[in-house]
What does this fold into?
Amino acid sequence: MNEGRRPPRDSGGPRGRRGGAGGGARGPGRTPGGRSSGRHELERLLSKAGFCSRAQARELVLAGRVRVNGVVIVDPEAWFDLVRDAVVVDGRAIAPARTEGRRYLALHKPRGCVTTRSDPDGRATVYDLVADCGAWVVPVGRLDLDTSGLLLFTNDTQFADRVTSPDSHVPKTYLVEAEPRLAQEALDALARGIELADGPTRPAEVELLGHRGPRTRFLLTITEGRNRQVRRMVKAVGAKVERLERVSIGPLELGELERGRWRELEPREVAALSRAADEARPARKGTKSGPGGARA
It folds into this structure.
């Protein structure tokens, strides 16, 4: 499997493992205009506090289980400030997520595992793999069923928003095996950008690792995250992705993390990811040559 592939770079980290009292009062929090950075829709506010997912928060609010300043709120889209307003769910006061309580995990997602909390077909989910982390965390972005590799989890939703924002251009690198073999012209087209149904892709980095039988192996680095983007790009140049693994997000690499295992990110890794997300960077392209064939 590793023939023709450069040795993995070490990431430096350890290896692992709606409004109203009873349905009417909306209050001043209902209007988003002039909001401070701490004001959010109630459902999002609960999610950002790390209490539950946004979908679960919406259900709690609609069920009348959430009080704000002593008043039952049943509008998930009512705006409040967790610092200024007293939010209580089932009698439990909700506090803003404390810095020391924030968690950042890296998971090596295997193929055949869905990026959802539950699956009607009974398939394994990524949440099953991080169930022993001892905290409520959510995935930072998604990987589809047949894609493996690096997937981040956190209860720091501001961090997750920064990393996944289309404005951040955080590069993500994938190891791709495509069939049939791709000619250099096809690799160059991937690097320049491909016209897809939802618009042209940004320029990318393509590094050819080699050919094996009817397949071409290469690294593809993109700075956007459309649905099934890599697979659609490869299809547009006349091939099909047979294997897809995300090997890095910004400066963070999958490294030697075992498949199906997770590990905590080190503070320096979180800081490096945050810097990468905060610095909007232009997409890169170019042609480089190297062992095993041209890099595009």
Notes: Residues 1-37, 281-296 have pLDDT under 50 and may be disordered. The helical segments are 42-48, 54-62, 126-129, 157-164, 184-192, 229-236, 267-278. The first strand starts at residue 39 and ends at 41.
